[in-house]
Amino acid sequence: MQINGRTIGLSERPYLIAEMSGNHNHSLDRALEIVTSAAEHGADAIKLQTYTADTITLDVDGPGFTIEDENSLWNGRRLHELYDEAHTPWDWHKPIMDHAKSLGIDCFSSPFDASAVDFLEELDVPAYKIASFESIDLPLIRKVAETGKPMIISTGMASVVEIGEALRAAREAGNEQVCILKCTSTYPATPENTNIRTIPNMRDTFGCEVGLSDHTMGTGVSVAATAFGAVLIEKHFTLARADGGVDSAFSLEPHELQQLRDETERAWQSLGQVTYGGTKAESGSRQFRRSLYVAEDMAEGESFTEANLRSVRPGYGLAPKHYDVLLGKRVNRALTKGTPVSWDLIA
Length: 347
What we know:
By secondary structure, the chain is an alpha/beta fold. It folds into two domains: 13-51 and 87-271, TIM Barrel; 280-345, Type Iii Antifreeze Protein Isoform Hplc 12, CATH 3.90.1210.10. The protein has helices at residues 28-40, 53-56, 79-86, 93-102, 114-122, 138-145, 160-172, 198-206, 220-227, 254-271, 323-326; strands at residues 2-3, 6-7, 15-19, 45-50, 106-111, 128-130, 151-154, 178-183, 209-214, 232-236, 291-294, 309-312. The strands form three sheets. It has an eight-stranded parallel β-sheet with strand order 5-4-3-10-9-8-7-6. The protein has a two-stranded antiparallel ribbon with strand order 1-2. Strand 3, helix 1 and strand 4 form a beta-alpha-beta unit. Helix 1 packs parallel to helix 4, helix 6 (138-145) runs parallel beside helix 7 (160-172) and helix 9 (220-227) packs parallel to helix 10 (254-271). It is elongated and about 100 Å long. InterPro entries: AFP_Neu5c_C_sf, Aldolase_TIM, PseI-like, PseI/NeuA/B-like_N, Pseudaminic_synth_PseI, SAF, SAF_AFP_Neu5Ac, SAF_PseI/NeuA/NeuB. It comes from Blastomonas marina.
């Protein structure tokens, strides 16, 4: 899978997406500043969300249209009101995308209905993201897949069957460029509920690249996910959590995004290959291993004893595993203290 020529896969460091969501706080200037900061602190892409309150929900007060969950950041909020507050005005999309392009990072979006896909196609976005709650919206997935653009599908709450259905919809529409994201749809999420051991299983089960949509605090879960093969990391991003906003409480700040970039890259670099016996880089350290040395001056014909045969550093003599074999063996020449022991010294 590629986005704007950048390979998304195990051969490259994780692709980092900074999710702006509603952290612009109704200010285009702030939105542009978020893009600048994301680019400066290591993001590969900035992601938007393309909807209006009316395209994502209904303006009613009936059951289910108000959040009633004491553990939710948005407890008591009407869905229509919340989405109206959080949405990114559609006329902001082009200036935000143009600014991202000028800074050398990608910018794309999550569409929430067919009209959003049509709009984003007019802007020629390089990729699409399907949000977790929309991963069961197969008509939307088919609509996006038909664009031929790379797709990222978040799988929060989705069963194996539902993930399979989403991928089948994309593939039957002719799109094989799909990456799925392990995701826990709580805000914020806890590390205990993230279950990143699922990532390699998802790759084996569904035959596609797998990343992480991470709603936990900090960067530790994303770094660990990299070790399990996550090729893409998405984190919400803000200039400062103290500024508030619908998603600010679980968003990274700039210095944390830079840490995410640095540490996921280190984690990816550390994966390497299955190897034993030391690497080329370690070759210079072999001299510091222990080996067998003459510990006292010895006369020709004298036998090795516990006093004159020692396992010490450096490592130019025989391996210590030969110590018991050598005890009692006579030497064929006079040896000085500090001589590395070798088989040709034995009578």
